[in-house]
Amino acid sequence: MSRKIGISGTATLVTALAATLLGVPATSHAMPMTSAFVQDSGVANDVAKKLDKKQFKSVTATVDSNGIATLTGSVDLYEYKMDAGKRVQKVKGVTGVRNEIQVAGPTTSDAELQQKIVEKLQYDRVGYGNLFNAISVNVQNGVVTLAGHARTDVDKDSALALVSTYPGVKDVVDEIEVDPTSIMDDQTRMAVARAVYGSSTLQKYAIDPAKPIRISVQNGHVELSGVVDSQADKDMAYMKANQVPGVFSVKNDLQVVGTSTEKSK
After folding, report:
1. Tens of pLDDT, residues 166-195
2. How far is CA 182 from CA 82, 93, 151, 186, in A?
């Protein structure tokens, strides 16, 4: 948010001189000051052209003498807010962006929004090894926090993009960790998956691609997450993963139906 600064007589003279050089009218001492910044009209015009899109119709941009662009107003989707910032950042002469745009759009309860986002993420990247992603979702006042693990940067970016375009999301906090790139870890993932899903008791969790037992690996350390039907299934998955050669440890974060609320993919 722009900071208001009191202006002395000398500062007023400097402002008037700068306004003359830029070809814009000086601000009268009797008029209310909305900012102590001197707007660069040339850069501001280029910024306005970048934002000349339907989705930015309620967005206002100002540029101070240091090239800092401040964006205010509102948009319907969080994606549009981020896009506006990226567009303005690319304008020649812009040295920084203060993105103060508010996300309007529909009002959705946090519980409903969380449920919908979880459902969307469950089917994200199906067919691309999404059982190796374990991304958690938490929503407070429309702000969505994504945490947990993604197997690759592509998986992480896909999840963030999906949430950013969902109506009702006001902001996105990215706390997702991408698992280390490692041939050994890749081999461990596959070995643990074969061990877990090779059990006749646990094969049923491979039927619905959106609700598998999720397996993430970081330098030989395995984490199991998702929802299972019973404590026996949870214990069996842990035992099978722990028996895989090369596994240093197993963290069993599997939830049993009816004992807690699911907040993960």
Report:
1. 999 999 999 999 999 999 999 999 999 999
2. 32, 42, 11, 6
